[in-house]
Design brief:
By secondary structure, this protein is an all-alpha fold. The protein has helices at about 1-15, 20-35, 35-40, 45-55, 70-80, 85-90, 95-105, 105-110, 115-130, 140-150, 155-185. It has 11 helices and no strands. It binds fe (ii) ion (FE2).
């Protein structure tokens, strides 16, 4: 777990003290990523690394555009020298393309493409099953909480409203793949 350990130490140094709730959330996202390992095979460590680092764009050292997925991916690429696939997963996680579109940042996001759909599904599942303070949560409740927290005027509200059907479809696909992997391990 060399890549995951590296990402864990980096994310901890950026979030643990200054943004403790984000750090608690990130740790839950990481533990959710570990539960998907049987379905991911060789990409399990990459997902774990992206999970723990997915919100580093909220750290003061990384904030630039204000779109935390792009800011985090840029920091990981330009400052930390991270694996391009790790940067891509952080860039595209959850509602990022919708937020980038609302903010006129789609070209900035495209620098990290192409997205890897199965892994984007997986990191979105991990993010949406983890509450803002690190508890396990139902994805539909999590999205409702995000909408309530930001309010209808905010770009995140507009992006998440538009993204909601696809985000829940990602969760369903991951659950199905995870179930299939468990069943094939039993047979
Ligand atoms: Fe998150």
């Amino acid at each position: 777990m060399q890549l995951a350990k590296w990402a864990h130490d980096l994310a901890e140094s950026m979030l643990a003290e200054s943004l403790p709730d984000r750090w608690a959330h990130s740790q839950r996202v990481y533990s959710q990523a570990l539960t998907l390992a049987p379905a991911l095979g060789a990409d399990a460590e990459l997902l774990a690394a992206a999970a723990i680092a997915h919100d580093v764009g909220y750290a003061q050292a990384a904030v630039d555009t204000g779109q935390h997925m792009i800011d985090g991916a840029r920091y990981l690429r330009d400052v930390a020298g991270a694996d391009p696939r790790l940067c891509s997963l952080v860039a595209f996680h959850t509602s990022s393309p919708w937020e980038a579109s609302e903010l006129g940042l789609s070209d900035a996001l495209a620098e990290f493409g192409p997205a890897e759909p199965d892994l984007v599904d997986a990191i979105t599942y991990c993010d949406l099953t983890s509450s803002p303070v690190g508890a396990l949560v139902d994805p539909a409740e999590r999205l409702a909480e995000v909408l309530a927290r930001y309010g209808p005027e905010h770009v995140v509200y507009q992006a998440v409203s538009a993204a909601r059907p696809e985000l829940l479809a990602r969760v369903a696909r991951v659950r199905q793949r995870s179930l299939e992997a468990k069943l094939s391990n039993l047979s």
